[in-house]
Amino acid sequence: MAPKISQNKTNDARIWLGVSKKTINPKPGLRLFGFPAERPNTGVESDLFVRTVVFGSGEDQPEAVLSVIDNLYAPSTIVAAVREKVANRIPYLKPSAIMVAASHTHSAPNLISYQSSSQGEGRVEPDTSYKNLVIENIVKSITEAWKNRRRVTARYGAGHANLGHNRRAIYGQYARNEWQDPQRKHTGYFNPKIPFTTFHNENNQIYAIIAGYGCHPVTLGPGNLKASADYPGYFVNALEKQTGAELAVQIMSGAADINPLRCLSDSPRQAKLIGKALAQSVIEVIPQSKPVKLSAVSSRTEPVRFRLRENIGRGPLDIIRGRSAGEFLQTEVQSIHLGDINLISAPGELFSEIAARVRESSPAKYTFVVEHANDAIGYIFTDESALQGGYEVCRGSLSESMERHYLAAAKKALLP
Fold first, then answer.
1. Domain containing 198: what range?
2. Are 39 and 32 in contact (CB under 8 A)?
3. pTM score over 0.85
4. Digit-coded pLDDT (tens) for 205-237
5. Does residue 197 lie in a domain region?
6. Shared-domain flag, residues 308 and 266
7. Contact in structure between 52 and 21 (CB atoms under 8 Å)
């Protein structure tokens, strides 16, 4: 049963919003990406989707897009192709206003050329037919979403689920990665909040939900051989079923150094438990959610540059191919402004502490950080962690300095 929500008499401001989702399930045999193990998939455990929300100030003014794909990454090559194709179909929507993010499931096929060793070993190329399938379905979902537009109001709330832990355990001055913590011993920063926005049609029914949570989708490990959206898929499916929403979307929001307390299983049991618990945490507080002031929709993009580190032979080949240490990699940070609500992107895996700093310094009343968006540059870590080492810093990043550059670009993008 959908939660009961009082009529919103204090907020007459509305925007136009449309939603759509498309399945992007792979054929059996296509390799799953996210762990070193060779994993040709044997089928689908839970459907992979493209989930899209299109925002507009007026009925004929689509002005921003959020598409979330069930994949490890949303590489810039995919985003560029989507923006080009949408420009041909919706010419009055700015291509730069399209944000494509990934749910970061480690149980979906590869979309990026990747090299896992600086010695040239472990090279993985995406399957062209699957890559084209994903691109076409993102484009279809965007065009279909705008056809499904409704005039909406919005509300904001936050659930609470202490289901993750900071996997960087500090011993002395150095970090050691401990992937699980079933006994809750780790004391590093973790944000248990589940911020969400519900969008309501003119009958005050929930039409769409955007929710954020910062926890790696690795309940399923290298022993899993079936395609799956991991716990985010079960989370949003439960939200849709229990609220009647046409679409629910989870965004990864500062999950780079956070794992589930129990994870890396061959079975989907833990994914289902976490998804159900997150949904219940949101459902319980929807009746207490607060009206949100909406205003004209806009999007803003700011460039951000990172100096490439030594030994960059490991990582996305689209980025590192032909580049040398000391050169600058330029990518982007994008914001979507909806009035009291701002969405702000991160072009890689964002540390939970940095996501918190973005929210705390944002001029918007409610800020949602969307990591894995518009690019796949690896880990964006804190200045403090750079001195502590660990997997994210030493093996998963392209630069030796990330935080201050990202925060500076995010600050500019969040300006009205």
1. 151-292
2. yes
3. yes
4. 999 999 999 999 999 999 999 999 999 999 999
5. yes
6. no
7. yes
